[in-house]
Write a structure and sequence with these properties.
Layout (H helix, E strand, L loop, with lengths): L2 H8 L4 H27 L1 H8 L5 H32 L2 H19 L5 H4 L1 H32 L5 H29 L2 H8 L1 H5 L1 H13 L5 H8 L7 H5 L5 H9 L2 H12 L1 H8 L4 H29 L1 H23 L4 H27 L7 H18 L1 H12 L4 H19 L13
Helix pairs in contact: 1-12, 2-5, 2-7, 2-8, 2-11, 3-4, 4-5, 4-7, 4-20, 4-21, 5-7, 5-11, 7-8, 7-20, 8-17, 8-19, 14-20, 15-19, 15-20, 15-22, 16-17, 17-18, 17-19, 18-19, 18-22
Length: 438
């Protein structure tokens, strides 16, 4: 097969196959992100269940510490499953990632609390969160490459936006289930058994996702690469080759706002509102749910715009919006009005959606097929571990020493500056053939 023929094959998936792959990617991303987000939304209750009574602030700090430590393993999972994806195939890596996530999340729902097993329950919770970190680290680049490599260039951003919207929808469902449970169950019932329900839902969701992914064929890009004997023997080493170094630097910097913004605006928001601003737990979850709903609806819209005018304008505009609106939005949250807090959450969700809609198409279009998922996963997951997973821990610790309620706004603003600079330095990649690399 010639290079020209390979390029044709890469772009020639039928519309029906592309739709099936996009739906499968969205469902799988939903399962992965639902499972991972439930811990963040129930952090306040997990702190009560898995740590000794009487030191709530310290318990919450340790709970977010476990949340952060799991992100250290995201780059490990990203590299291991990325190498698997680049050498064995995108689909096997996706299936393994989903199996690990569903199994770990279901097991968390079955764990005894500190009152029964003491420190043993904490250590098991940590182990299961580490498995979740490995799973999510490998899922992102494999699943997004799977969808993006099937899509035709002029619709790639739009089609890749559905897994992205699936991830925010998953967080919306996670926050919604937490809201429903905390609104209908007494605190005692919630701490006794109610918190387990969202985790146990992972079992049927995982089975559905596993079945769907097992039925799919691998991507044309990977199949062509395999048929031509162009599989990289060491994708991690090749990711650092001279021709990829600038791309790798961009892969570390482009996700800064994506990492910090997602976990601060969506996942940390309920805890911030309840523990620091003294909102009720249902009210905190409602604000996060509205923010997620606005982002979910807006993501495909912004992605479609990026297919027409370019990724860079959409990304930079979103960064500027976050920089300008973060402080006013957090001042509104601090006003103590639930209605005003909902409006502020909606504004932040819409401003962030532009970044979130084009983040993964930009990452996908940075690298050639033989190192794509490995390099993509490495840059994305390292930044997510530093600025995303650690964000709740950093902000909780800093608030304890400073009492500054605008810390989340400043954290997100600084990350937006970094992403804006990286987007400005990046080449425009909209419409790029995934084989057009020199």
């Amino acid at each position: 097969m010639t290079s020209a023929e390979s390029a044709h094959v890469v772009q020639s998936s039928s519309p029906s196959e592309t739709r099936k792959v996009t739906v499968a990617g969205a469902i799988g991303f939903f399962v992965e992100n639902y499972d991972n987000s439930v811990y963040g939304f129930l952090a306040g209750i997990i702190a009560i269940v898995f740590f000794p009574q009487g030191a709530e602030a310290v318990a919450l700090l340790f709970t977010f510490g476990i949340f952060a430590v799991s992100f250290v393993f995201r780059p490990v999972g990203g590299v291991l499953l990325g190498i698997m994806s680049d050498r064995v195939g995108r689909r096997p890596a996706m299936v393994l990632a989903l199996t690990l996530m569903a199994g770990a999340t279901t097991t968390i729902g079955l764990l005894p609390g500190y009152a029964s097993w003491g420190i043993g329950s904490v250590l098991l919770l940590l182990l299961l969160r580490l498995i979740q970190g490995v799973s999510v680290g490998g899922e992102v680049s494999a699943a997004m490459s799977f969808v993006g490599e099937h899509a035709e260039p002029r619709k790639r951003g739009f089609l890749m936006s559905f897994p992205q919207a699936g991830s925010t929808l998953a967080n919306l469902v996670g926050s919604g289930s937490a809201f429903l449970l905390t609104s209908t169950l007494s605190p005692a019932a919630m701490e006794s058994w109610g918190w387990r329900i969202p985790f146990l839902i992972a079992a049927p969701l995982g089975i559905i996702g596993f079945y769907i992914r097992q039925k799919l064929e691998d991507t044309p890009a990977f199949t062509a690469m395999r048929d031509e004997g162009k599989i990289a023997r060491n994708p991690l080493r090749d990711a650092f080759a001279r021709e990829n170094r600038r791309r790798l630097v961009l892969a570390f910097t482009l996700p800064m706002l994506n990492s910090a913004g997602f976990f601060v605006i969506f996942v940390f928001m309920p805890t911030y509102l309840t523990s620091q601003l003294k909102f009720t737990r249902p009210a905190g979850l409602l604000v996060a749910a509205v923010s997620l709903a606005c982002a979910t609806v807006a993501i495909p819209f912004f992605a479609r715009i990026s297919d027409r005018i370019g990724r860079r304008p959409v990304m930079i505009t979103s960064c500027v919006a976050i920089i300008v609106l973060s402080v006013p939005a957090y001042l509104s949250l601090n006003a103590g009005s639930e209605a005003l807090a909902i409006v502020a959450g909606a504004v932040l969700g819409l401003a962030f959606a532009g970044n979130y809609s084009v983040m993964h198409p930009m990452m996908l279009e940075l690298f050639p097929s033989n190192v794509r998922t490995t390099a993509y996963a490495l840059g994305y997951n390292v930044t997510t571990a530093v600025l995303g997973g650690a964000a709740p821990l950093i902000l909780t610790a800093l608030y304890g020493s400073t009492g500054n309620l605008l810390l989340p706004a400043f954290f997100v603003m600084v990350s937006a500056v970094g992403t804006a600079i990286a987007a400005y330095k990046n080449d425009e990649t909209t419409g790029r053939s995934l084989t057009d690399f020199v």
